[in-house]
Amino acid sequence: MTRITINADQKVGKINKNIYGHFSEHLGRCIYEGIWVGTDSSIPNTNGIRNDVVEALRALKVPVLRWPGGCFADEYHWKDGVGPREKRAKMINTHWGGVIENNHFGTHEFLDFCEMIGAEPYVCGNVGSGTVQEMSEWVEYITFDGESPMANWRKENGRECPWKLPYFGVGNENWGCGGHMRPEYYADLYRRYQTYVRHYGENKIYKIACGANTWDYNWTEVLMKQAGHLMDGLSLHYYTVPGSWFEKGSSLEFNEDGWFDTLEKALLMDELITKHSTIIDRYDPQKRVGLIVDEWGTWYDVLPGTNPRFLYQQNTLRDALVAGIHLNIFHRHCERVQMANLAQMVNVLQAVILTDKEKMVLTPTYHVMRMFNVHQDAELLHLELKSADYTYESRTIPAVSASASVDKDGKIHISLCNLDPTESQDIRCEIRGTGQAKVRGEILTSGKMNDHNDFEHPDVVAPSSFDAAKIEEGILVTTLPPMSVVVLAIE
Ligand code: AHR
User: Fold this and answer.
1) For labelling alongside 328, which of 6, 37, 113, 143 has CA 20 to 30 A away?
2) Cα(406) to centroid of ligand 1, in Å?
3) DSSP single-letter state for residue 412
4) Interval between CA 70 and ligand 1 midpoint (Å)
5) CA 149 to centroid of ligand 1, rounded, Å
6) How far is the CA of 277 from the centre of ligand 1 (A)?
7) For residue range 441-487, what is the model confidence (pLDDT) as tens digits?
8) Residue 397: which residues within 8 A CB-CB, separation 6 or more?
9) Which residues are paired to 389 by β-bridges?
10) Can you say how many angstroms the Cα of residue 461 is from the centroid of all Cα atoms in its chain?
């Protein structure tokens, strides 16, 4: 039995809707094919952007989208990606397979795409191989309203009024693909580059410094000490990689070993956030600086027969559980975690959408992100969880992950995951501080742990309504089927 207490009269803090953010990089088939097909394509599109993908993303309520990388960001030169498309310079995408990047999807296309899906843009600038001037002029080009070389150029290129650019990242993984820097060196560069990321007119930019690779607490310490006062956010990257980086295992062919290993590693996100936050707290007890988890998700071996640098993997019920676990963790840390970006949006890593020419399929991760989006901008409620165990061989993790929030209309949402692939979980949940007693729900589960959706069978893993929960005298009682994700609404 899992016992939960929810104190509906104790609000912990606001769940920033940006925790539901996404990430799209010039990598494999994410941008090209997944989002951009070009204006001449027979695939239905608006100004070159796929209509089916836009429609699916609108339904997901994507709050914010990070672009153009990733590792690509630190070799991207934005000026090559504006102006008439047929005249744009080509480049080699050295990091992701050495393919030719024709720069047809550039600043205008990205910002148009954000407008189409209703997301705010988060642009990541080039520190690794770019100049301060280049970064500064990019911000001027996008946001300056008036006479200036960059604003005039933007107008010549067809966009009269500036865009809003709320979020800007000063480099990506500068401890690795973004320049292999030491934290002291990057901290100095951050201080310099961010100086010229200007706030033009009403456009106030939230500046995000490159943060640590997973367990590198020294990076966080140095950045906070040397540059904490000049940043609004500090990033953190952590991928759920079963096995090892050299042998991650298949996204589709796995047994309980791969299931357990993956979920156990997904749960580590909680420890990581806690420990990085403890360091940030020392320098910023007021919690002004947000922790921005701008890359997270599963990373498996690529599907056989696909380009090893395109990072194309399938997405099963296991990924749905990974998504649910992460979102519950982000909710619980909502006082510090102000944004998170799932890697990546389409056709790469833990994608919410897969495409094959004119076909498109929604993954189990998509469904979880959609079911959970009721928590966006809601108030996190205090919740105590005494979970039953899920033991596999000699290892044990909690069987249940949970969080709860109340939205602006007073509706309470509880999201629950049962990580155990064979045992159902009886839940007894006391809901204090409210008289609300009408409950309805939605569930995502399936018969086998590696069930997934493909182009021939797009609805193998799909949400359905869940009516196995009832509330009597303030006690919610339900049973979660094995390997399931449930979201309950209480009013
Ligand atoms: O998401 C794929 C890659 O993972 C990104 O380009 C990089 O930032 C990270 O290492």
Assistant:
1) 113
2) 34
3) E
4) 5
5) 33
6) 22
7) 999 999 999 999 999 999 999 999 999 999 988 899 999 999 999 99
8) 260, 263, 264, 267, 389, 390, 419
9) 398
10) 21
Write out the two tokens for 98: 């050495």
Buried b (16+ CB within 10 A) or exposed e, 29-50: bbbbbbbbbbeeeebebeebbb
The residues lining ligand 1, judged by C-beta closer than 6 Å to any ligand atom, are 25, 69-71, 172-173, 295, 343-344, 349
Looking at residue 436, what is its pLDDT?
A: 82
Q: Give the position, in ligand 1's atom list, of the atom nearest the Cα of 343.
A: 1
Both structure tokens of 372: 């959970």
Measure the CA–CA gap between 345 and 104, rounded to whole angstroms.
Answer: 19
Question: Are 388 and 19 spatial neighbours (Cβ–Cβ below 8 Å)?
Answer: no
Question: Which tokens belong to 266?
Answer: 């997904």
Which pLDDT tens digit goes with each residue over 326-377?
A: 999 999 999 999 999 999 999 999 999 999 999 999 999 999 999 999 999 9
Which of 71, 76, 180, 240 has most ligand 1 atoms within 8 Å of CB, for mutation?
71
Between the alpha carbon of residue 403 and those of residues 48, 57, 60, 103, 333, the distances in Å are: 40, 24, 20, 42, 11
CB of 317 within 8 A of CB of 256? no
Burial pattern 319-339, b for ≥16 Cβ within 10 A else e, equals bbbbbbbbbbbbbbbbbbbbb
Query: Given the DSSP bridges, would you call strands 49-50 and 475-480 parallel, antiparallel or unpaired?
Result: unpaired
Nearest of 397, 398, 375 to residue 387 by alpha carbon: 398
Active-site positions?
173, 295
Nearest Cα residue to atom 2 of ligand 1:
70
For residue 8, report the phi and psi dihedrals to the nearest 5 degrees.
-70, -15
For the stretch 179-203, pLDDT in tens is: 999 999 999 999 999 999 999 999 9
